[in-house]
Amino acid sequence: MAANIMIVDDEKEIADLIELYLINDGYTVHKFYNGADALAYISAQSPDLAILDIMLPDIDGFTLLQKIREKHFYPVIMLTAKSEDTDKIMGLTIGADDYITKPFNPLEVTARVKTQLRRYTRYNNAAGAGGISDINNGKAQADGTMRETEYDINGLIINKSTHQCTLYGKEIALTPIEFSILWYLCENRGRVISSEELFENVWGEKFIDSNNTVMAHIGRLREKLGEPPRKPKFVKTVWGVGYKIE
Fold it and tell me: How much is the average pLDDT of 9-25?
């Protein structure tokens, strides 16, 4: 079944171009030129992925993103005509999975769409099928060791088989990327993980200098865990090196 992609961009030429490339790749596209129509659609339907322009004539892309994240975790890619890091960080902080700066190559957009859908599908398969896709379920690995499927760190419990995270008994709703970041840190508990290592293992792409994606997602993760910015209890910053969970 073809994935349903929502495109929201008031620049008709750009929206039509992205639509053309996505349809050629076999996707079903739902296209909107303003935020109000898009908001009506997401209130009634749940696409598999959304591509949102930040600058819209009525409701801006950030507001749409916030509305989506109130109920849904499907991937969201932001489009921005600005190259300032503040726009990118804001989008990532409030729940975006990726961003693309205009002008762009349409092939880049389709590649990013495929990457996000692949990750989201893998996440859902793991959650719905007891982790069949990429989880060892505690069985012995080739080297004879056991792979953990759950970590309990001072009241923070994360289970890879069910893709659930609880803090002091209360479930924390994490996006697939947030879950993957937290799991990777727990899996490497006590070791400092650089932004480069975290990005390349979670996103599966080459890290680029001055990439603030990891920092923005760490900030979002800490917010959900109720972490004080200066003295976080779980996800700690080792300045100039990276992040760790002790």
Answer: 95
